[in-house]
Amino acid sequence: MIFPTKHTNFSKSLLGFGSYILNTLKTPLSVDDLWRQYHIDYENGVYPAKQSFDNLLLTLIVLHSINAVNEQNGLIIKCG
User: Would you call 27 exposed, middle or buried from its count of C-beta atoms within 10 A (0-12, 13-18, 19+)?
Assistant: First the structure.
């Protein structure tokens, strides 16, 4: 479910989760910090869809493959 479909809304897709991650990366964060921030935002209703840690990693791979994020010294940084 990389892309939203008729039965998968945008927030449940990796594309939607990637959008959330890019908005969250105002400063470089580790994967653990990004995961913790997602849980805080999910609990507070900022991000409406429940995602797994595997989906976080898949989303980071997708974002890295399109050169939207990069890893530097163990931190995920937003490119551009």
Answer: exposed
> Residue 20: which of 57, 2, 46 has the closest Cα?
46
Instruction: Say if CB 2 and CB 62 are below 8 A apart.
Output: yes
Query: 35-65 pLDDT, tens per residue?
Result: 999 999 999 999 999 999 999 999 999 999 9
pLDDT for the residue 28: 96
Strand duo 69-72 + 75-78: pairing: antiparallel
| CA pair distance 26, 77, nearest whole angstrom | 8
- Asked if 54 contacts 20 with a C-beta cutoff of 8 angstroms, the reply is no
Identity of the amino acid at 21? I
Other Cβ atoms closer than 10 A to 3: 10
pTM of the entire predicted model: 0.88
